[in-house]
Amino acid sequence: MAGASVPVLVGPTAVGKTAVALALADYLAIEVVSADSRQIYRRLDLATAKPTRKERRRVPHHGLDVVDPGQRYSAGRFALDAAGWLVAIRKRNVLPVVVGGTGLYIRALAEGLFREPSLPAGRREDLQAWLERLPAAELVRWALRLDPGFRGGGRHRAMRAIELALLTGQPLSHWHRAARGDAAITPWYVFLTAPRPVLHRRIELRAEEMMRRGLIEEVASVLAEGHAADAPGLDAVGVREAVQYLHGQRPRESVSDAIATSTRQYAKRQETWFRHQLRGDVLTLDTSRPAGEVAQEIMQAWTTIDD
User: Fold this and answer.
1) CA 286, 211, 236 angle in degrees (round to 5)?
2) Given this structure, which CATH class describes domain 5-114+182-210+269-303?
3) d(C-alpha 222, C-alpha 118), whole Å
4) Could you tell me whether strands 30-34 and 95-100 are parallel, antiparallel, or unpaired per DSSP bridges?
5) Is 298 exposed, middle or buried (0-12, 13-18, 19+ CB in 10 A)?
6) What is the spatial distance between Cα 66 and Cα 72, in angstroms, rounded to a whole number?
7) What is the 8-class DSSP label of residue 254?
8) CA distance 180 to 169
9) C-beta of residue 256 within 8 angstroms of C-beta of residue 162
10) What Rg value do the Cα atoms of the chain yield, rounded?
11) Which helix or strand (DSSP H or E) is residue 32 part of?
């Protein structure tokens, strides 16, 4: 089974997924496939807490810096790209390890690619032009009205849900069930957790560190390229709060606390998703211990899986 399976390290933001993956490289020859819907954006390194250049030289990462801010990137596109990365990694006789906190990306890899039905181009363009004028809250209300199975995910996911419902007569949740292809991996899940006080403290420290290292300047540089404040990549936690400051909507001294608050809420949603959506056996590990200890436990469990 180990030859066909792929370790998939999941958990909430700031739980220590990157540290554990790097430590795992001390025991196994690995390359990481990042399943993070924020880290795909170029030039937003601090805002999305990407592994550093030094860390990436130590362990190759795939799925970082894929598109420019302002470009849309779906879970379906991720699954296609990741399938190619996985093939290339295996050809090098290295173990691919999927690491991330974006549940839809994990699902697209582990349960099969969602194949979007064909949509009439002209009607879709007209609908998109109308949807672009609506505020995010109104888009979410429409998505919920048209698809009771809609589970959120921001402005662009809401737009997609509305498009599919109105142009096909079936909601997005229906197409996710009915139009799923073959899975790219057989996942072996490792769910990383931490006691809530530990996780919250890590989130606070990360937000403070992001500000010290130049988060505001990084986001300002991207905005200077001409992107709208709610463009893809700029509507994520961490970026959004910096954008608010740069647009005069909050004082600079409030940004770190605002990021920490939003990140805690996001981490709670991630934990809930992973606790209820992962299928099959799941190895759950507490990352309040040193990353090396957690990695050693993962390695020992992985090597006991029968081929």
Assistant:
1) 70
2) alpha beta
3) 33
4) parallel
5) buried
6) 11
7) G
8) 18
9) no
10) 20
11) strand 30-34
199 CB burial (10 A radius; 0-12, 13-18, 19+): buried
30 DSSP 8-state letter? E
CA separation for the pair 32, 25 (Å, rounded): 10
3-state secondary structure 122-162: HHHHHHHHHHHCCCHHHHHHHHHHHCCCCCCCCHHHHHHHH
Residue 246: closest CA among 276, 286, 216, 203: 216
DSSP 226: T
Amino acid (1-letter code) at residue 275 = R
Helices 155-168 & 121-132 angle (0-180, nearest 10): 140
CA distance 76 to 80: 6
Q: Are strands 186-193 and 282-286 parallel, antiparallel or unpaired?
A: parallel
Domain definitions of the chain by residue range? 5-114+182-210+269-303, 121-178
Q: Which of 18, 79, 75 is nearest to 49 (CA)?
A: 18
pTM over 0.90? The answer is no
Q: Mean pLDDT per segment of 10 residues, for the chain of length 307 residues?
A: 76 98 97 97 96 97 96 89 95 96 92 73 88 89 89 79 90 70 85 98 98 98 92 92 96 98 96 91 96 97 78
What's the CA gap between 189 and 281, in Å, rounded? 7
For the CA atoms of 54, 58, 61, 65, what is the dihedral angle to 10 degrees?
A: 20
Token pair in block for residue 293: 């200890």
What is the SS3 string spanning 285-304?
EECCCCHHHHHHHHHHHHHC
Strands lying side by side in the sheet with 30-34:
61-62, 30-34, 95-100, 5-10, 186-193, 282-286
